[in-house]
Amino acid sequence: MSANPPEHYSDPFEQSAVYRMARNQLRDAARHLDNIDPGIIARLEVPKRSMMVSVPVRMDDGSTRMFTGYRVQHSITSGASKGGLRYAPSVDLGEVAALAMWMSWKCGIMGLPFGGAKGGIAVDTAQISASEKQRLTRRFTDEILTIIGPRIDVMAPDMGTDEQTMAWIYDTYSMKVGYACPEIVTGKPVELGGCVGRREATGRGVTYCIEMAAEEYKLPLNGATAVVQGYGNVGSVTCEELHKRGVKVIAVGDRYAAVFNPKGLDIPALYRHVYENRDNPLKTVDGFPGGEKLPLADLLTLKCDVLIPAAMERVLTEEIAQKVNCRIIAEGANGPTTMKADTVLNEKGVFIIPDVLCNAGGVTVSYFEWVQDLAQFMWDEDRVNSELRKQMAKAYKRVRAKATEKNISMRTAALVIGVEKVAREKAMRGLYP
Ligand code: NAD
Question: Of 30, 87, 96, 272, which shows the fewest CB atoms inside 10 Å?
Answer without folding.
Answer: 272
